Amino acid sequence: MTTMVRETTTTPGPAAAAVPSGSAIRRHELAAFLRNRRERIPPEQVGLPRGRRRRTPGLRREEVAQLSAVGVTWYTWLEQARDIQVSEQVLDALARTLLLDSSERAHLFQLAGAVDPTPAARCQTITPALRHMLTQLEPVPACIQNSRYDILAYNRTYARLMMRDLDTVAPEDRNCMVLVYTHEEWRRSIVLLDETMRMMAAKLRASMAGHLGEPAWKMLVKRLRTESAEFREIWERYEVFGGTRSKTKQFVNPYVGLLTLDHTDLWLAPDMGARMVTYAPTDEASRVGLERLHEVARAAENEDPRGGSGSRGPALGGSPAVGARP
Description:
Mean pLDDT: 82
Oligomer: single chain
Structural class: alpha+beta
Distance between the termini: 79 Å
Shape: elongated
Number of helices: 13
Order of helices and strands: HHHHHHEEHHHHHHEEEHE
Radius of gyration: 25 Å
Strand content: 5-15%
Helix content: 40-55%
Low-confidence stretches: 1-17, 305-315, 319-326
Number of strands: 6
């Protein structure tokens, strides 16, 4: 006797339909955001030829992948909203390739469910009292840095010490290592540039021993190795300098000329590497020069209808954020 089994199927009702998870929704939003920003960038803007057969309104996927140093297949999967892991380093590279501003960069990291390790949120180390101290030190240039050389806050004289206005630099680029190795105006201001680059790399190497594996540190070194042949050569020497000391430095300021200043580190939170850096004049000419520079900064601030750019406000500058521990 043969028993026949009839196969039946049940059509799920509306209540049983699959509901996208929160992570799936974010992946699709991330994919749409990447496509939108990719299609907005003409190839000429990033140094690529347009060619005759280009049908894509902006960059091609393979061009974004190449400029960001990631695999084409991997990036394609990202735009297809596949469930793949995305590191902070890759997100940083994509943000730079797609020319994202600070708000767009924050949106990118939020959609990816990642924490931006570059200065992107106010650092808890920078209290209102410290910000007030920075203003009170005027006309002496002063800033607060961490051991990774991120510039966390600064007064208006410091903003114009080594360039015409530090406020014009994107917050995620306000890092002394990045500036000294890649920013031409910053580099031109330093009299002993070669010695400065070598010493800073040696200090970074020493500090990094306590932060091995941390994304922000790895990302900084990777960026410097990618963007600066000088850094690659110096970094391979494996020089280490862990001490701190006051030192006389000279700068050719774009507004007032040569300044001879005493560099001093005032440690605020040694366990986190936070320090206040001050530049006091060593002679009368430099004192007068700093007074003039301070007047330039105040005049420029008064001419700005916003009362100072973005995060800085009328009297004080700095990265608006530091997401990671210094």
